[in-house]
Specification:
The chain has 2 helices and 4 strands, in the order αβββαβ. The chain has 70 residues and is an alpha+beta fold. Strands 1, 2, 3 and 4 form a 4-stranded mixed sheet that branches. A hairpin with a 2-residue loop joins strand 2 and strand 3. The longest helix is centred in the last third of the chain and has 16 residues, at 41-56.
Length: 70
């Protein structure tokens, strides 16, 4: 999942401010990331969610948490 998210334009990296950068529990997935300065965090989060959903097979609920701007 992390590699798919890191390929998204505007993602500066994954972060671990609130725990592991990628956490899976049951059929839910949470990804914590940093957004590149000058990019709209909402747009980057939506693109990252799409990438993570595709990488997870589409049957997983994905939450993206933006914890940092770089």
């Amino acid at each position: 999942m992390a590699l798919a998210v890191l390929r998204v334009e505007g993602v500066a990296g994954v972060t671990d401010a609130l725990g592991p950068p990628v956490r899976r529990s049951g059929d839910a997935l949470r990804v914590e990331l940093a957004v590149t300065a000058g990019r709209r965090p909402l747009d980057v989060a939506r693109a990252a969610r799409s990438a993570a959903t595709a990488a997870a097979g589409g049957a997983t609920a994905v939450t993206v948490l933006v914890s940092e701007l770089r």
